[in-house]
Amino acid sequence: MALSSGGYFVFLAVCVAVYRALPARFHDVVLLAASVAFYLFAMPRFTVWILLYALLVWLAGIFAVGKGSGRVVTVLAVTGTVLYLLLVKYAAPVLSFFPGDLEKTGFFSSLVVPVGISYITFQAIAYLVEIARGSIPPETNMVRFFLYLLFFAKVTAGPIEPPETFLKELHRRHRMRPQKTAQGLLLLMRGLLRKIVIADVLAEGINAVYANPAAHSGFEAVFAILLYSAQIYYDFAGYTDLARGSAALFGISLTENFDKPYGAETIREFWGRWHISLSSWLREYIYIPLGGSHCGMFRRCLNLMLTFLVSGIWHGASLTFVIWGLLHGFFQMLGVLYEYLMRKRGVRRERATGVAHLLRMGRTYLLVTFNWIFFRADTLADVWAILTRPFEGLGSFLQSLKAMGITAATLPMFALTLLAIRAMDSALIDPLSRETTRGVPGTRRLAFLAVLTVWTVFLVQSTMQGESATFIYFNF
Questions:
Q1: Distance of CA 75 to the CA centre of its chain
Q2: Residue 190 per-residue DSSP state
Q3: Which of 126, 151, 172 is the last residue of a domain?
């Protein structure tokens, strides 16, 4: 049940109605019941297993206190969660690199990847490690812990919530405020606009090019490369809006995953703005434990490469994901070496302004967009085919646009959608904030309401016609 589907909104409305009709002491139970029902709909065969998984992690957290046996429990529990993730997600793809039919006929081919297992595993690891560090106490309320791992708004594709932040949200939740409800509704609408009107419209032409690069012109290959950077942003940011909006209707704040990532001047800054919850997790539990930046230059560069290797593998077992991760690590390493050499010469790097700022943004955007080719392509052969297409004769510009699904009616639709999203942005404080403003003043409010009404009708019609495409990050 995708968060952009009509069925999900019916489910969400029922959950909100029941939640608000019952006394506060039943709220956590209602949310857990809804989360179990959501998972039961997604993977009925694995619901009992995922509940058992959560129970084992919860018990491990209870016993993971102290330096002696507590540390042993932590190590065993973390190792077990990692091994399970590696088994279900990577065993069959890795075996496929070797000759023979073991992966097709044996035990590994029967393994099914549970929905959201990567996000659940990373949150379980964070919880256990923070207990071992003494940063948080074990959560003695089993219902609240289960919500930390399995809350339906975030179980399929995050955000990857820090345990101390999310558990505090559950503990301090008070009566529903109109501002929080307004924030939730705005986020839901913005998420639908981003997903249905932009990402899904772009997806059709992009998927066609990547499915058969040889059948498309050079212009179409270029458009597919450039437009995919927009598609994946609006798809994933749209999902995050829907997850945060859903949670806000219950008075819960989730982490914002995006902060204008394509406005970054460097790859390092990009990763501080893109998939922020994953970047924070990798920094906290991979990069810093390896030594982070508090070591020699060679070790620091090695730490960067290993961290982004983990990031690539986390996204998938394919060589394309591994190369994608290593390229990001390599570009960050070059940035670190450049800053090191500049400091040696006594030159301090400052944020650029004007044209220099635009040039740095453009450079970073092109590097990120180039890396997206490896992220999107299924095989290295597809990567090569996409990269060579632009040099094999450029076709008609307008025909290429049409082949990519960009018609005369599409551009005004995109323009209106972006205006609507901008209007919603003006009704929300900084994306990393957890509160909303009191409203949008004057004529902007009227314009916002008018655009919102038009697109509400459009989205209702779209929902009635069929389900939207699956979110890209559901695959990870």
A1: 27
A2: H
A3: 172
Does one domain contain both 254 and 392? yes
Domain assignment present for residue 18? The answer is no
What is the distance of C-alpha 369 from the center of its chain? Answer: 17
Q: Which domain holds residue 194?
A: 178-260+387-475
Paired with 436 in beta bridges are 428
Region of residue 291 (left: phi > 0; alpha: psi -120 to 50; beta: else): left
pLDDT at residue number 449: 57
- The gap from C-alpha 205 to its chain's centroid, in whole angstroms, comes to 23
What pTM was computed for the model? Answer: 0.82
CB 445 within 8 A of CB 451: no
Q: Which of 19-33, 343-357, 421-435 has the highest mean pLDDT?
A: 19-33
Contacts of 384 (CB under 8 A, 6+ apart): none
Worst-scoring range by mean pLDDT, 57-61, 208-212, 413-417?
413-417
Most confident of 147-151, 222-226, 405-409: 147-151
State the average pLDDT over residues 452-461: 55
List CB contacts of 285: < 8 A, sequence separation 6 or more.
125, 126, 129
Rounded alpha-carbon distances, angstroms, from residue 116 to 75, 89, 154, 476 = 23, 11, 9, 7
Q: Is residue 5 part of a domain?
A: no
CB-based contacts of 142, cutoff 8 Å, min separation 6? 55, 58
Whole-angstrom distance, CA of residue 349 vs CA of residue 131: 39
Domain count of the chain? Answer: 3
